[in-house]
Amino acid sequence: MKETALVIMAAGIGSRFGGGIKQLAKLGPHEEIIIDYSIHDALKAGFDKIIFIIRKDIEADFKEVIGDRISRIAKVRYAFQDLSDLPEGFTVPEGRKKPWGTGQAILAARDLIDCPFIVINADDFYGAEGFKKVHDYLVNEMDENSDRLDLCMAGYVLGNTLSENGAVTRGVCEKDETGHLVSVHETFDIEKKDGVVKGKTETGEEVLLTEDAVASMNMWGLTPAFVKKLGEGFPEFLKKSEGNIKAEYLLPEVVGDLVTEGKATVKVLHTDDKWFGVTYADDKPYVMAALKELHEKKVYGDKLFD
After folding, report:
1. Which residues pair with 187 in a beta bridge?
2. How far is Cα 254 from Cα 230, in angstroms, rounded to an integer?
3. Of 220, 175, 210, which is closest to residue 190 (Cα–Cα)?
4. pLDDT-based confidence at 15, cuts 50/70/90?
5. In this structure, what are the phi and psi dihedrals at residue 292, rounded to the nearest 5 degrees?
6. Which of 78, 137, 158, 224 is the most buried (most CB within 10 A)?
7. pTM strictly above 0.85
8. Can you tell me whether residue 259 is helix, strand or coil?
9. Is the pLDDT of residue 16 over 80?
10. Is the CA virtual torsion 115, 237, 124, 111 positive or negative?
11. Sign of CA dihedral 146, 41, 64, 34
């Protein structure tokens, strides 16, 4: 069977979590962290190896809390996202503090990615269905010899991804009648109030949304050929964003551009699983209660890993 990898982006600073390293917060009833659930579901779905993308300064803590444990049950590699990891001819602009976003995160692992892979955020709970559907697509349906990049994504129901503790940003997707992605619209300040879901465009224009809209939660099924395209586009992004020290090279925008240019197709794989994460500190009690309920319902056992 075709080899596949799980790539976990865990280099986020997590300032909105009130300090500390939110990716390592123990939220499950048996002190599990959210990454534990993603790894459990991914290995069960059939993924063969794991690539953690982290910051060098959290390496020791990360390995102590999870990395060393997981290396006993799966093949594990590490990549390090660094602000100064830039193409030749570019330097870090004065005042820039954070790395360059999810696109640069994947490029940090470019020398380790040699097979189709799923990429996820470390601090998000996705549910098992998305992992299974993406894995099966990568193994059974993806055409790596297509003239256009053949990619996929898990499409979440927008209403299943909202936070009760504040507004969120989501990639709101449009798809065609064949179930392929047409566009991704980065939508900000999404909240549900009085039964109505509203958000804002990048320019601040208010938009009315439906709860059953398709949301991208950064669960993509990608290939080494995509990583090559990602690398080719990074210098162009840096040129365009010169002077903007907060600009980010984001996966949804790169994928959306490739689709618009006719260079990629993206199959949207529907999932009804409820997504949740720790965007805000006040999300923590809710996440802990939700995970406890999943254990009580026997979706997960007392031990995720034997």
Report:
1. 170
2. 7
3. 210
4. very low
5. -60, -40
6. 158
7. yes
8. helix
9. no
10. positive
11. positive
